[in-house]
Amino acid sequence: MTDHYPVTRGRHLNHVAWLYDPLVERLSFGRERKFREKTMAWMDISPTDRILDVGCGTGSLTLLLAERLNPAAGMISGIDAAPRMIAIARKKAAKKRADIDFQVGIAESLAFADQSFNWVVNSMFTHHIDTGLKEKAFAEMYRVLKPGGMLLTADIDRPTTLPGRLLGWSGRYLLLQPELEDNLRGLLPDFMHRAGFWQVEKKEHLYGLVSFFTAQKPEVER
Ligand SMILES: C[S@@+](CC[C@H](N)C(=O)[O-])C[C@H]1O[C@@H](n2cnc3c(N)ncnc32)[C@H](O)[C@@H]1O
Is the pLDDT at 222 greater than 70, yes or no? Predict the structure, then answer.
């Protein structure tokens, strides 16, 4: 039987899924773990939380987040548009005996009920989707968060150094990735505000190119 998956015009990585983990390890010069730790440092997680990782890829961050939960009380899901990324994530979880709900899914139409999660996280994901999909994806992340729930976005942002500018804008024009443009223009907070989030804060800026943002879904919708 053939599986039918939701289709996205986002830049999914199904074709290079096998290459993703080795490539990230090499391109980050062994700093991946540190980047994941920095991401989680901005998340005040309780062991009973329900967490969603959007565009989770091969699940590296999802697996680390799962370690912070009490498996009997909390839960974590990871979704990605690329079935082969999800297949790798599931294998990694099985190897660690981690109870994680990895699903093929698309950020612009999340298959979760309203108000399901305490935290929604997305790491290096938004620069894979165009402006229209960013609007929808942030609206969906807002929808599935509980009132008072938190968003963490770790992604490419307006560059602040010459190497950051060269790297970012060459990605945009030489690698022909127009989805990068909103990020490079520093527009991520605008998407969050438009989706309804408040207390949008840039917590940290790394390597002159990547920022960590947190935002909250208000307790009472405005
Ligand atoms: C650079 S990877 C980041 C993966 C992971 N979050 C990490 O930090 O390693 C971006 C991921 O977004 C996924 N993606 C692209 N468009 C998507 C969409 N519309 N919905 C869900 N995932 C999508 C890709 O398949 C890819 O796995």
Answer: no
